[in-house]
């Protein structure tokens, strides 16, 4: 439920607006293969989606100290090398247009770096939908609340005037730490059981459900 006083809706990107979980998993596994690193399982990669890349590496490849060479390979695989489809979830654009027409401020808080976020915003045609966006290299990684604190300050919103929509516990823990409500989605990286541990206000099975809240 979106509270009556809500004015700011913050969306995660991967697994919430874009169906990119499969591509992230494939690109990370290929990166590990090519660099002769231990190949993480599908569940291991799904479990870190939403974190900054640096935090992902600490969790997936704890034996590696220098991450620059991993980043170079992973970004190549994700952007060019891997051809796993990563479309917007069906109904994303119409839902954002509807919320925008109702007067809500819309934002993105993502584990992507700024150049990666700008690339997908431009490619998807959604750049103009959002009043403000923040990337993982502009604040501390989720679930730290700094991203949301900055979005609240930028939009001059109070915590009880905002809500976070995301597919991972990192999104919802971040919301809890910032004192704002959270809505989980069932179609992203983390399971519904995982999302329920964060006590979201609701869990939706289709992004278009936000239009009727």
From TrEMBL:
GO terms for molecular function: phosphoglycolate phosphatase activity. It holds the Pfam family HAD_2. Keywords: Hydrolase. InterPro entries: HAD-like_hydrolase_sf, HAD-like_sf, HAD-SF_hydro_IA, HAD_2, HAD_sf, PGP-like_dom2. GO terms for cellular component: cytosol. GO terms for biological process: DNA repair. It comes from the Bacteria. This is HAD-superfamily hydrolase, subfamily IA, variant 3. It comes from Kangiella koreensis (strain DSM 16069 / JCM 12317 / KCTC 12182 / SW-125). The lineage of its organism: Bacteria, Pseudomonadati, Pseudomonadota, Gammaproteobacteria, Kangiellales.
């Amino acid at each position: 439920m979106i509270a009556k006083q809500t004015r700011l809706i913050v969306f995660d990107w991967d697994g919430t607006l874009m169906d990119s979980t499969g591509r992230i998993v494939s690109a990370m596994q290929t990166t590990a293969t090519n660099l002769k690193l231990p190949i993480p399982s599908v569940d291991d990669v799904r479990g870190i989606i939403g974190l900054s890349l640096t935090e992902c590496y600490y969790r997936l490849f704890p034996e590696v100290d220098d991450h620059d060479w991993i980043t170079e390979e992973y970004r190549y695989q994700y952007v060019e090398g891997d051809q796993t489809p990563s479309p917007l979830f069906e109904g994303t654009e119409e839902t954002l247009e509807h919320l925008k027409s109702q007067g809500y401020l819309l934002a993105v808080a993502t584990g992507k770096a700024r150049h990666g976020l700008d690339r997908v915003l431009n490619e998807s045609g959604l750049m103009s939908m959002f009043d403000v966006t923040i990337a993982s290299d502009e604040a501390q990684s989720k679930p730290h609340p700094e991203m949301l604190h900055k979005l609240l300050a930028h939009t001059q919103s109070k915590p009880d005037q905002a809500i976070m929509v995301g597919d991972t516990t990192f999104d919802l823990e971040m919301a809890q730490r910032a004192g704002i409500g959270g809505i989980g989605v069932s179609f992203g990286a983390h399971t519904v059981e995982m999302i329920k541990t964060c006590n979201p206000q609701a869990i939706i099975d289709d992004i278009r459900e936000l239009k009727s809240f």
